[in-house]
Amino acid sequence: MNEKNRVGIIARLRTRLSKAREGFAKRVRNVLRKGAIDEDVFEELEATLIQADMGVKTTHQLVEKMRERVKSDRLTDAEQLYTVLEEELVALMSQPSTDAHSAVQSASPHVALVIGVNGVGKTTTIAKLAHMHRLDGKKVVVAAADTFRAAAIEQLEIWAQRAGADIVKHKSGADPAAVAYDALAAAIARKCDQVIIDTAGRLHTKTNLMEELKKIKRVLGKLDPSAPHEVLMVLDATTGQNALSQARLFTEALGVTGIILTKLDGTAKGGIVVAIHQEFGIPVKFIGVGESLDDLKPFAPTEFVKALFED
Amino acid sequence: MFESLSEKLQKTLRNLRGLGKLSEKNMKDGLRDVRMALLEADVNYKVVKDFIGHVQDKALGREVLESITPGQQLVKVVYDELVRMMGKEAEPLRLSSEPPTVIMLIGLQGSGKTTTAAKLARSLRTRGHQPLLVAADVYRPAAVQQLIVLSEQLGIPAYSDENSNDPVGICRDSVQHARRSNRDVLILDTAGRLHINDELIEELRRIREILHPHEVLLVADAMTGQDAVNVAEQFHSRVGITGVILTKLDGDARGGAALSIKSVTGQPIKFAGIGEKLDAFEVFHPDRVASRILGMGDVLSLVEKAQGTIDEKRAAELQEKLLKAQFTLEDFQQQLQQLKKMGPLDEIMAMIPGMSKFKGLQPQEQDVVRVEAIINSMTKKERQLPTIIDGSRKKRIARGSGTAVADVNRLLKQFQQMQKMMKQVRRMGRLRGLGGGLNFPV
């Protein structure tokens, strides 16, 4: 990605992120930057972080840390405090994944398994991912392994066509693991670079449906022991504290290697990914900021953190 | 996973037992716990603030009147207020006396509108209506197809227009279609959209102006976090909603969004989506979601589900046994059979308070068959007194049931753990009943 392009994306992202941002974020900045650090500043800080869905625990840890920094660094100005906090969050969100969550980069075909609860935007995200790989000149196969939801296969088919990717599909109601297997086999035969597997949305608490995902993973391993190389959990930015439970259970079942945070073009901040990063070491890899094919962006920690506080 | 609020409060307020009254001072820690519980349950920050202030006033006002422990008194006030704020009783759908009734479903992308449209249609049909599903989502690829597939599964007609990409026109035409084909309720499935997308919000306003729907229901995901207030506020002030349907309540989300949405819109939550199947849909029960927000489990939903499948007497027995933990392996076997009738086991188990702590213990459907076989191969005495099952008895049981000794061991261990779990449930139940001053719906 060249520099000009990158700036363009960031500017665009900013406009998207700032759309209709009203209320507390602006106020917080005002409070935070109005001058002396007093109890109001910490209270407002707590309000901001919690309202960004960062969760009680993470918020309290951050606020306590800031209290300490104020003492140790002799901060007097709220503006300084804000800068310190921003740095702290950017550092946290820039950390690479812990070993347990690392993805295999070089594999051909590279296999990405895309999972998540119902309605987070898996199918649309897969279309965007396919499009992104296509722009890189790669040959992409998508696997329609959501054989449960009515018309999910048709939906992916339309997107695959738009993105210029091949699709491997069975009938509605077929075994998702068989679809995934066939897709990888086809990708190997056709010498494709990237396989992206769409799965049915499922609540992480449904044991039988989690077993189904494990089976997909097992079956892929028969063709390539290192596959899937990436397990991407799609997370809706509007989700609250339940995202922690999602991250925990999907990771236990499959070993999530990264998060795609969708719907950041709304008013939700998606702060729960900070708690997820802190607790499980799972990084955010991409963000979704709209409904068209090029609305998937690599995650940029600085932009994300700024958006938490800016209007 | 969560320590329940009751457990937490019990700890915090243990040393206050016997004081018998609430003061601002001794309530401080308790209210802090309540606040944390609500925030952890995703109730909006501002809503929590108001709520805590309100509870404090209420609790202070009643301090001398009741002589139970401060912790119980506080939990009761918190619970009662939650229920009151969420609407006390479930509110029915407003149906027009001059059909067709028009029900419009709106909401963010992925909140579950299409599935909910189908579930609502099914529920209306069981009440003697002739619903018509209207496919007004012309934007999402294959959304129309999705609604048509669901309508075919249900055998309920759907109206769509392949040649039109104008949702307003489709909705308008669908009313004519309903009149001609004698359908008395229309359910409009609109496209998911952001509450800040002016153009698409305007489209909803136009549909509303032209069709004058009797219900405009906001479909909202139970897992929504703090942003629920923005979403609900915007949809309400810009389109105008008359009620809410909360979806995906079958997961482990605490559902604080329910309280947030109710407090910013003032509109009742009418239904809840509780599973992927088309019959997994029920009237919203504020009391149950209140206990859920507070982390107190959902015993009542479980009992009701049992009642729908088993007869009432057996449901009462089941509840009693579940709560009293007085069951033998024989009961265990019977219960597994009954539970099987009630639906997928993982859904049932999720409703039992404290069950989330026992991940991995939830029985799988295929295990049930094996478990039954093992229990069938035991003698009556063994079923009543599993402790007498020694090595040679185990071998016999394994042979008789076509399983391995390891399977028998696993069952016995599971049974022991189950008994422990039931004791846990009983402890929580006892807390509710403590002092006789608490009126929790168990």
UniProtKB/TrEMBL annotation, chain A:
Subcellular location as annotated: Cell membrane; Cytoplasm
Matching Gene3D superfamilies: P-loop containing nucleotide triphosphate hydrolases (3.40.50.300), Signal recognition particle SRP54, nucleotide-binding domain (1.20.120.140)
Family affiliation: Belongs to the GTP-binding SRP family. FtsY subfamily.
Function according to Swiss-Prot or TrEMBL: Involved in targeting and insertion of nascent membrane proteins into the cytoplasmic membrane. Acts as a receptor for the complex formed by the signal recognition particle (SRP) and the ribosome-nascent chain (RNC). Interaction with SRP-RNC leads to the transfer of the RNC complex to the Sec translocase for insertion into the membrane, the hydrolysis of GTP by both Ffh and FtsY, and the dissociation of the SRP-FtsY complex into the individual components.
Keywords assigned: Cell membrane, Cytoplasm, GTP-binding, Hydrolase, Membrane, Nucleotide-binding, Receptor
Molecular function terms from GO: GTP binding; GTPase activity; signal recognition particle binding
InterPro entries for this protein: AAA+_ATPase, P-loop_NTPase, Signal_recog_particl_SRP54_hlx, SR_rcpt_FtsY, SRP/SRP_N, SRP54_GTPase_dom, SRP54_N_sf
Gene Ontology CC: one annotated term: cytoplasm
Catalytically driven reaction(s): GTP + H2O = GDP + phosphate + H(+)
Transmembrane segments: none
EC number: 3.6.5.4
BP term (GO), one: SRP-dependent cotranslational protein targeting to membrane
SMART domains: AAA (SM00382), SRP54 (SM00962), SRP54_N (SM00963)
List of residues binding GTP: 116-123, 198-202, 262-265
Pfam families: SRP54, SRP54_N
Annotated organism of origin: Candidatus Abyssobacteria bacterium SURF_17
Start and end residues of each SRP54-type proteins GTP-binding domain: 283-296
Highest taxon of source: Bacteria
UniProt-recorded name of the protein: Signal recognition particle receptor FtsY
UniProt keyword Isomerase, yes or no: no
SUPFAM superfamilies: Domain of the SRP/SRP receptor G-proteins, P-loop containing nucleoside triphosphate hydrolases
Assembly, per entry: Part of the signal recognition particle protein translocation system, which is composed of SRP and FtsY.
Membrane topology label: Peripheral membrane protein
TrEMBL record, chain B:
Residues in the signal sequence: none
One Gene Ontology biological process: SRP-dependent cotranslational protein targeting to membrane
Enzyme Commission code(s) on record: 3.6.5.4
Residue ranges annotated for the SRP54-type proteins GTP-binding domain, each copy included: 268-281
Localization of this protein: Cytoplasm
Top-level taxon in the UniProt lineage: Bacteria
Cited PROSITE patterns: SRP54
GO molecular function: 7S RNA binding; GTP binding; GTPase activity
Listed name of the protein: Signal recognition particle protein
Organism of derivation: Candidatus Abyssobacteria bacterium SURF_17
